[in-house]
Amino acid sequence: MEQRQRWGASAGRFAQGKQTQVRLSRIGMLNEMTHMDEEENEERLETSAESDVAASGPRSKVREFPTGPGVYLMKDSEGRVIYVGKAVNLRSRAGSYFTKAAEVDRRTAELVTEIADLDYIETDSEVDALLMEARLIKDIQPKFNNLLKDDKTFPYLQITTREDFPRVEFTRQPESKGVRLYGPFTNAGQLRGTIAVLQKIFRFRTCTLDIGENEEKWRWFRPCLLASINQCTAPCNLRISREDYKEDIRRLCLFLDGKKDRLLKDMEKQMLEASRELKFEKAARIRDEIESLRTLNLRGDLEAHAQPEVFYIDPGKGMEGLRRVLKLDRLPRRIEGVDIAHLQGGETVASLVQFIDGLPFKHGYKRYRIKSVEGVDDFASMREVITRRFRRLSQEGESFPDLLLIDGGIGQLNAVMETFQAIGIEPPATISLAKREEEVYVPGLPEPHRLSRHSFALRLLQYVRDEAHRFAQHYHHMLRQKATFGEVRKGRSPGKRRKPKEE
Hints:
By secondary structure, the chain is α+β, with helices and mostly antiparallel strands. It has 18 helices and 14 strands. The chain folds into three domains: about 1-145, GIY-YIG endonuclease, CATH 3.40.1440.10; about 155-305, no CATH class; about 315-500, Nucleotidyltransferase, domain 5.
């Protein structure tokens, strides 16, 4: 692989002269000669590139191309590379330029008339081909690669370099400082697919969060879906050290620089070291990454891997969005969310979660076992929770949250507002979030707010609502286990772990 990549680098440096014509033609020869005996190899090497083209021409030459992935290079009569392309099947893709359709297609008609010769460089996978194509286009700057651009600029893969946890981005407007750039690439969909495939191996972040290693607030941040499906190491929750994360980025850069063989050797060495140190989980992870790199060519169509954006919650933008939508006097820096859960047998529990500056504050979490309600009655259960919570805050002189979020629709919200009136307490700003349509109900308004599914305000409310639901279900399961197995299990001592308060 490294030999092929050295040829690619040579193509980039010398493509504008006669020397390139000989060098790149011999690349094609070397690939074709893999099935020849030694005498035939020597005979072909002694044949000049010009003689070979004259004898066969590009139309015949392409029939001898391999059927695997790689990069093809079109040259004019002066031996200059005028177009670089990539292919999953080199013979099929390069051969498509010598069809009737290519001669009349406005995008290829002029290129076809100037093709006097062509060569190829094989790669291990479509991902390798995509990256090699980008490197060659950047080095050679072929005439028709520039002419065939659409109205948009070419996309780039950009890695930030001045952050504790560098991020990997798809961009059409690359930064001039503080980044490492790869590209330009000719196909945006395939670049997005490549980023998704590589993220499954190197588990880097693609979000725009400004994460500092020494900022304690990130310990309470909830990672996005990519962490749950093991495609990100979740630096946003400080689940990985700065040093380990940057090592993953170093490996990624080695791969993007075309040094896959060196990368695999480094990783095999690290895997053995981890095993000797009895760090078997780390060794297994590196083993899986090595296997993924070796089987990149089995991953199918790159564009099929491109995934929709995974939206994270920007705490500041979420709070500002809520202030604006709900017409609040100030930012809702402290948000509390309430949810009800029902146990088998009719017992009901409730949870209260607390967010400060848009992030979970788990020391403020509370749980309630409903005492005054028989059977399943969400409205009555919500009345009890609100009464117990806000009477206690009022009696102890504690401040109320800036925003109270109720899980449910207009019925649950009305029950809560009636409760505040019944107990004689002025309520904080209170809203409810109905799950089916994600509608936000506000007291006194005839119609709910319907926020954009992508708005930071809605995402923050969903985050609070889902966390309250998760915490209620956790309490539900804990009580069920106690009922089934008893409070103290064999081999475990109670009370060692601090638990949220039950009020």
